[in-house]
């Protein structure tokens, strides 16, 4: 049932808008033609007053009413539902799902209502519009010449001093704009030798730093059973905090045979006194991207970093044996002090954490 | 004095006249109302991204009212009992408050996160549509570049947002990001210490990420999205080939009212789906991860999905460290390649692709008609190659979870990923190329010989042949015009369209469109097809 409107809107002539015989659609069609649009097909999808139209209107109305009901439910739930968090499985656990469902349904109601209205009730049409991608050579030339003329008028070519002085004078202004940002943000990475020291560095008086647990208590050898391991921190102020993010180490109590192997490996690279008895401590910060390499596999003596799966063999100086890490975990030399607690004899002798350009 | 009669019906006309007197809006408004848009479901993918972005802005503004971007240490004392008394940063504490102590805060947070994931997903799928159909060709290269940048700016927006709550998971992500920055040759340590103001984590990174996340990056996104839409508007949308559609016209609907209504409805649907997801599916339960502590991590710490391919590339990278023996010695760590170089190469390749293809094909004309992926096998093959490359990386980003769930050795997963990354993309190229050629050939075959009818005829000499319904009356082949070729009899109208309605027919069966097939409703025709037994 394609509507064609013969007569008034035909031809390329602009229509007389005051013509009383002109329908509103004729004007629409004439207007479209002024934008180089041909409405070639315009077809109502439902007959006005028909059963189909009434049915579709009811559907749309139903969607909108559904929105109303659901939005009201949302408000009621928002206001009256017990929402404050309680341990266990209380009604508060339903608060967010209920809000989501009611909000979702009310939005979907609007959405489907509007879509049905637009897609089913409004006439279908096919219009054809010209793209007008043709190049306007004349305008191109005029604009080009105008711009060249402006350049001529400025006369930089004739007056080279202007150009040079402009560059010389204004370039620093650009730098001025950038200076506060760069200058404010820039921070010397090697201040206080921070990239190469951790909380385990002995104090200036030569006082050795104790290894402590997460709760700050120092550790005796008897606290870790064979095959066990514990995360240790420097026993200094804020030692157990992100302030010393590079410091945490894993203190491992190796079994006799493994410890023997680890000691021999230590000797091979000149780390003769780094272990104490069967105890060895390795940095917990992965040398790849800095995650804590903390999954210790007791049977194979491997440490696995869960972020990118680098694996380090503890009995071979924590050498990387699989994955993307290329550098072994730095070892913390440890000993037991007079009171029977673990201390670090010195800081790590290698750089802790992810690798970087100037790491010696 | 006589009171002037107030006519309600004249108000809109008077207002309109008044507005037009002052702003001369009639002409531009007519152009806008009349603008013609071509329609196809695949053109809606980009809009999902646009609508998710609007939801992101709305929910994001809500969150800023309650979030405290500070790393000052506080002792948590909110409603969530398991963490009460724990020292944590103010950022994490306020994120917990949004989840537990702000009424409706959790759904807003979850809507924000889900719409961010949807935003990135829609961008990727939209980009694939544009790539495989050749919509990026001249004159639309600029918009392709803007779109590619939108992905990476969206990536930054996602990452900075993900880092703000300062929970156990996001802190680990930030730790890796600092490692990535450190790995840049020459300037790495300077960049890192400048961004973090000293050693990781420092005390200011959350504040800096906050202003980037709520002002700088959204501003950039808005500008890019504005330019993107402006260019679509100016250059007019591409269209599929089809009857009456040429390179110089746009065939579709005028923007108002039907097209605009459909857009508005679609926005509400996207919004509604996000709300449902936010209510029903938990996302990023930060209270389970605890505050960030540099020494705590658990297995299966995966980033948001759009970061996973970089996580995967990092896992697959062999431990190749480059040592430069000058002076004290310098290092390029293996982390540099998969996380800095790879994204750089990817940006460069996607930005340059339209120009590379134009150069390869020596095709410098403007194209407004889309291409079916089968018609450009080389490009479709490249696309399949890229998708495969991406999938191998993304799966490798979860290789520990896969290894765990399927009881596979983790190292085998890594090796599988390494080998797969090299072998599968070329294989995907080859397979896609062949499939495209096959589809092309089948199109040509149907055009030359007609549609398979499923009717088998026995020839006098005993052979069986299938009857084909030619697509036209004359002899000779039809020309392929770059659009769908009907391959089933009911696409020709021979079987008539299906009757619509779920429980009962809602309309009279429409008359079948003109078709060369004989009418099927006469008794004689029917009896011929049945077994022949009549009772």
Give a verbal description of the structure.
The complex is a heterodimer of chains A (360) and B (535). By secondary structure, chain A is an alpha+beta fold. Chain A is 35% helix and 15% strand. Chain A contains 6 helices and 13 strands. In chain A, α2 runs antiparallel to α3 (95-121). In chain B, α12 (308-316) packs across α13 and α12 (308-316) crosses α14. Chain B has a domain at 42-242 and 250-345: Cytochrome Bc1 Complex, Chain C, CATH 1.20.810. In chain B, a hairpin with a 5-residue loop joins β5 and β6 (330-332). Chain B contains 17 helices and 8 strands. At the A-B interface, α1, β1, α2, α3 and β2 of A face α2, α5, α7, α8 and β4 of B.
Low-confidence stretches of chain A: 1-11
- Can you identify the CATH class of the domain at 42-242 and 250-345 in chain B? Mainly Alpha
Distance between the termini of chain A: 83 Å
**At the third CATH level, what is the topology name of the domain at 209-344 in chain A?**
Rieske Iron-sulfur Protein
Question: Approximately how much beta-strand content do the residues of chain A carry?
Answer: 15-25%
Main β-sheet description of chain A:
7 strands, antiparallel
The assembly state of the depicted protein chains is: heterodimer
The mean pLDDT of chain A is 90
Order of helices and strands of chain A: HEHHEHHEEEHEEEEEEEE
Give the structural class of chain A: alpha+beta
Radius of gyration of chain A: 39 Å
What's the overall geometry of chain B?
Answer: globular
Main β sheet profile of chain B: 2 strands, antiparallel
CATH architecture of the domain at 209-344 in chain A: 3-layer Sandwich
Order of helices and strands of chain B: HHEHEEHHHHHHEHHHEEHHHHEEH
Average of pLDDT of chain B: 90
Radius of gyration of chain B over all CA atoms, rounded: 30 Å
Q: Which shape of chain A, going by the Cα principal axes? A: flat
- CATH class value of the domain at 209-344 in chain A: Mainly Beta
> End-to-end distance of chain B, in Å?
94 Å
